[in-house]
Design brief:
Blueprint (H helix, E strand, L loop, with lengths): L6 E4 L12 E2 L4 E4 L2 H6 L3 E3 L9 H18 L8 H8 L3 H13 L3 E5 L6 E5 L1 H11 L5 H14 L8 H7 L12 E4 L3 H4 L2 H19 L7 H8 L3 H13 L3 E3 L9 E3 L1 H11 L5 H14 L9 H12 L18
Antiparallel strand pairs: 1-3, 2-7, 4-7, 5-6, 8-9
Length: 333
């Protein structure tokens, strides 16, 4: 079978990212998906700076809440049991409970019980969320942003209580002049294939690759990566190792004059294509469990017929069996 078709097109530095690209608002390369995938994929705006004020689990939690808002705005019910939220987010119970506490502490989370008290709607406190996005867009200086958001995290200040004058002061040096913060196109299905740490590292990598276009040879040292991502070294090493095994990133050589690690376009495009195939999160979770855990395949090896089978399964979930073998078939002859 042929691999999933991928089309590469490089932008000029004066252009911004087109649909299907990684980073919006920054000039960079475009990784165009097959046209049908572009129509189907619904992406969210993911901001790398979020990881400076919350854990990687909480970043993914917030991204799912952005998706919940989309469902709410389109008249879908969002009153589910806590177990349904946990399953939808692909999290364990303990990390889920920690995220509830963490996000309530900085004023990002609102929980509303239904009339019977059996179901709950978890939603974003939009004034706080909008203020966080403004903070991330206030400055081009990542160190200033990191220090500002780390202070909020340590002191537990509510984001919606931060006065505009503090945000203006943050942008007084290397300010963005009111422009929206650069964001990475994020798909909720990412959390069924990757760990929260791996997702946050990918988000930072997109940002790093942009910087490296203007400063060749930067981010060649691990210390630079740890400072930029705010990750502990063991967590960083584990995330890098897993992403390499999944075909999502690759290590470069000093002669390349590129960052120490770069995103592998085929693996990323295939991940986006799979996530855009169906909105049925049950089907997506089952596919990634089979593909990654059972078959132990890398994401640069997704086949076109598997995408089509997943699409059909998502559309007919509950009315047909899982379309892939539980274990790969091995011939003795």
């Amino acid at each position: 079978h042929d691999a999933l078709p991928i089309y590469h097109e490089y932008c000029e530095l004066s252009e911004t990212i087109q649909a299907g690209g990684l980073l919006t608002g920054f000039p960079c390369f475009t990784l165009k998906l097959h046209i049908t995938m572009e129509r189907q994929s619904r992406y969210l705006k993911g901001y790398p700076g979020f990881s400076y004020v919350m854990s990687s689990e909480a970043v993914c939690f917030v991204m799912h809440l952005v998706d919940v808002k989309y469902l709410q705005d389109n008249n879908y019910t969002i009153f589910w049991t806590q177990e349904e939220y946990i399953e939808r987010m692909g999290m364990g119970r303990k990390p889920f409970i920690r995220c509830l506490w963490e996000l309530k502490r900085i004023g990002l989370l609102v929980d509303t019980q239904d009339e019977n008290g059996k179901r709950v709607a978890y939603t974003l406190n939009m004034p706080a969320y909008d203020k966080l996005v403004r903070i991330c867009g206030a400055t081009y200086n990542p160190q200033r942003l990191k220090e500002f958001l780390n202070t909020i995290k340590k002191t537990g200040r509510r984001l919606d209580n931060i006065p505009d004058r503090e945000i203006a002061l943050l942008g007084s040096v290397s300010g963005r002049g009111g422009k929206e913060a650069s964001y990475v196109k994020y798909y909720t299905g990412f959390s069924y294939a990757l760990s929260p740490d791996e997702i946050c590292l990918l988000m930072h990598m997109v940002d790093i690759e942009f910087v490296a276009r203007y400063k060749p040879g930067c981010f060649r040292k691990k210390e630079e990566w740890l400072a930029r991502t705010g990750m502990d070294e063991p967590v960083f090493d584990k995330s890098v190792r897993n992403l390499e095994q999944l075909g999502m990133i690759k290590k470069t050589t000093a002669e390349d004059r590129k960052p120490l690690f770069v995103i592998f376009p085929t693996g990323y495009n295939n991940l986006v294509a799979v996530c855009g195939t169906t909105y049925n999160y049950h089907a997506l979770k089952e596919f990634f469990t089979w593909f990654i855990q059972k078959q132990k395949r890398s994401l640069n090896n997704v086949l076109a017929h598997e995408i089509e089978a997943l699409k059909n399964y998502g559309q007919n979930y509950g009315a047909m069996n899982f379309p892939f073998p539980v274990l790969p078939k091995i011939s003795r002859f």
